[in-house]
Amino acid sequence: MLRHCSDARYVWNLAVEQHAWWRPGRKSAPGYLEQSRQLTVARAASPWLARGSQTVQQQALRDFAQAMANFFDGTHDRPTWRKAGQHEGFRVTGTRGRGWDFHRLSRKWAEVRIPKVGWVRFRLSRPLPDDVKSYRVTRDRAGRWHVAFAVIPAPGPAPGTGAVVGIDRGVKVTAALSTGEMLAVPRLGGREAARLLRLERKLARAKRGSNRRGKVKTQIARVKAREADRRQDWIEQTSTGIARRFDVIRVEDLKVKNMTRSAKGTTQQPGRNVAQKAGLNREIARSGWGALVKRLEDKAPGRVQKMPPAYTSQRCSACGHVARENRESQAVFLCTACGYAANADVNAACNIAAGHVVNARGGDRVAGPVNREPQRTLLGV
After folding, report:
1. What is the pLDDT of residue 256?
2. Annotation says 345 is catalytic
């Protein structure tokens, strides 16, 4: 399976290299069909490449073609290089029974047949339908293997109560609901955080390229993988609960990618408070803001609305007064006009649920959701 990962990464990087020089107005880069013919020639000329699975290698080219199509549609960024140790995985497609197969062994265990590998046993986390046409095998940095079957589940029905909820995302409180609930993503415990700190200090003392350094990096990856598993489980359970309880879900239209951009700057114009900004970026990444909204959109399609976030934390949800002085601290909101007091995150969530938008001049209005067209390329496609 490591050989399959290496072959898929090698073919993918070759396709990226062919498209790296392309710019709008230049000659077209080779497509999937031409790259498939080139792969056949390369397999005939290179015995080490021919020993790998042609199914895995061709699927890497199909995935790259789909990634380029998404890039031209404006929904995704341009495909980039894949690195060993970071992007370990391959995908297998086709009809069940031809090239791959799946058998259930018990309630919790099953096995899948991988080309040129054979039957591989894995833990079955949920029932698997019969209409599966592809699966992907990946290896994370902690050395764990995962298999994911491509099945699109049907979205859950709306409760039909007409309930509307607003969600304010933050660092201290991951998700504050307009109902008064304050949800926080699980983090590492005290002993786990202390162990992670010890391992990071040990890694700093280890010599680069040594076996000791590799073992320490694996131990750090296992601790961080445990935290990532908890975060993903929390996101799945939280998004499912919200989608089942509310008909309309309103969230802030936050640009998480821009918010987590590095403040390092350049040599001519160095940034300020770089260490503080790096710490804030790490906390935002650990909170899973984007993943929570993405799963809400998957489980409640058409019912998630993104609202402009301007002044939602400074507006009083009771009287509508907008002032910077209303928010006394990170957690306390006290209106200077009417004296309304509440948790600052819950107050912002109430403004989001009501759909109130405040401009720079202090004007207040009720606006609809933010629906932006996808970005277009220079080709206009």
Report:
1. 78
2. yes
